[in-house]
Amino acid sequence: MIQTPTLADIYRPIEKDLADFQSSLKSQLKSDDPLLQELGDYIVEIAGKHLRPALTILTARMSGEKTDLPIRMAIAIELLHTATLIHDDIVDGSKFRRSRESLNQKWGTEIALIGGDYIYAKAFSALSEIADPRANQMFSLCALKICEGEMKQVETRKTPFVSEEKYLSMIYKKTAVLFETACAAGGYAAGLSLPEIAKLAEYGKAFGMSYQIADDCLDLVGTAEVLGKENGSDFEKSDPTLPLIYLMGELNGDFPSRDFAKARDLAVERGAVERSLRLAKRYGAEASAALAAAPSGPCRKSLLDLVDFTLQRV
């Protein structure tokens, strides 16, 4: 039996780059204001898997280029992602993020809101140092789509049933677009051609869709250890997730209870989780296929392994 590589295995080809990234991220969050410095230190302390910056660096390093531009792109990606998480936690009233107190829980809504704005500003400040209008356009469009996706998610909480088509459009904007941008930024930083960058963006988009659908399944059947938060949070907020959309279809839109345990059991029994995972795997296959013409080597292997790693979480 072949064992799926760990995240440490997958990141090994860019180990030094990620160390440089983490050091640069800490420097980027330095502030003369004591409270903003405290916020920045805490954000670094509770950092997650750095998946999106890793995608930027891996896609850039496939070409063998060794400039520092991928690191700077990765900083902007991570700061943009972090800002969205801070604002998400405020909107959702989340008490925890990555098994630690969220900023709004630790410092209150007002400071967390300003902190999220500050991190957004830091993202575009980091981007301005690259001084290229194409990079600015890429990140600005990404930020716009994320806001549209988040708005749509909040709006759908008032809707008893969301179609699969609307759901897929929403998670593209809410989640996958940042993966898409991270990979395109890596190709851009490596000086690749537009068709080559488009293929990397295709990988990122499909991988991001697979990742989000797998997360939907984890919210039902996963553990707090894997999620970094209690499962069932999407269910409690009435956020549309693919297994529950499929389950509602099975039940003709008449879900009988707001009981999480019952919803979880029904989603498993009626095959809604399994059906969702099949779609996640199809997106995973699309992501892998997008790398067919990419240069072989450890970075390409890591990108392919990330697809399997994501799906194996469930």
**How would you state the average pLDDT, rounded?**
90
- What is the distance, rounded to the nearest whole angstrom, between the alpha carbons of the first and last residues? 18 Å
Give the strand tally: 2
Order of helices and strands: HHHHHEEHHHHHHHHHHH
Q: What is the 3D form?
A: globular
What oligomeric arrangement do these chains adopt?
Answer: single chain
What low-confidence regions span 5 or more consecutive residues with pLDDT below 50? none
Class from helix and strand fractions = mainly alpha
CATH superfamily: Farnesyl Diphosphate Synthase
Radius of gyration: 19 Å
Largest sheet: 2 strands, antiparallel
Number of helices: 16
Number of domains: 1
The helix fraction, in percent, is: over 70%
At CATH level 3, the topology is Farnesyl Diphosphate Synthase
Task: Write down the CATH class.
Answer: Mainly Alpha
Strand content: under 5%
Q: What is the CATH architecture annotation?
A: Orthogonal Bundle
Could you outline the blueprint of secondary structure elements for this entry?
Elements: H1 7-11, H2 15-28, H3 34-45, H4 51-61, H5 69-92, E1 96-97, E2 100-101, H6 103-107, H7 109-128, H8 133-156, H9 164-189, H10 194-221, H11 224-227, H12 233-237, H13 242-250, H14 260-269, H15 272-290, H16 298-312
Antiparallel strand pairs: 1-2
Helix pairs in contact: 2-5, 4-5, 4-9, 4-16, 5-7, 5-8, 5-9, 8-9, 9-10, 10-15, 13-15, 15-16
